[in-house]
Structure formats: structure tokens, C-alpha cells
Amino acid sequence: MIENVVEFFKNLPPKQCATCGEQIEEQHECYGTKCNSCTE
Q1: How far is CA 12 from the centre of its chain?
Q2: Residue 20: its pLDDT value, please?
Q3: Does residue 13 contact residue 21 with C-beta atoms inside 8 Å?
Q4: Within 10 Å of residue 34's Cβ, how many Cβ atoms?
Q5: Which residues lie below 8 Å from residue 26, measured CB to CB, with a gap of 6+?
Q6: Contact 29, 40 (CB under 8 A)
């Protein structure tokens, strides 16, 4: 069961900023939706 969860998170696509569309350089499973530039 644990292996399936690990594979799920490994296969998530890179997150994109909800404002500008740039790829977010943080973990894919985190809750943030904006890049550092748009957050400031």
C-alpha cells in the first residue's frame, strides 16, 4: 500500500502558478498555488 502512495506522488506533474502560469519550484503535493514572484 505504501508503495502505491509513493508512486502517486512521484508521478504528479509539476505545479504551475495560478496567477502567471510559471512552474512552481516546490513539492508537487504542497498546498501553495502561487510562485514566489506572485506571492510578494
Answers
A1: 8
A2: 95
A3: no
A4: 15
A5: 15, 32
A6: no
Q: Which of 6, 11, 32 is nearest to 23 (CA)?
A: 32
CB 35 within 8 A of CB 18: no
Q: What are the grid coordinates assigned to 4, written together?
A: 502505491
pLDDT digits (tens, 9 = 90+) for 6-38: 888 888 888 889 999 998 877 656 778 888 888
Cell of 6: 509513493
Cell of 16: 504551475
Q: What is the pLDDT of residue 22?
A: 92
Enter the C-alpha cell of residue 19.
Answer: 496567477
Residue with cell 495560478: 18
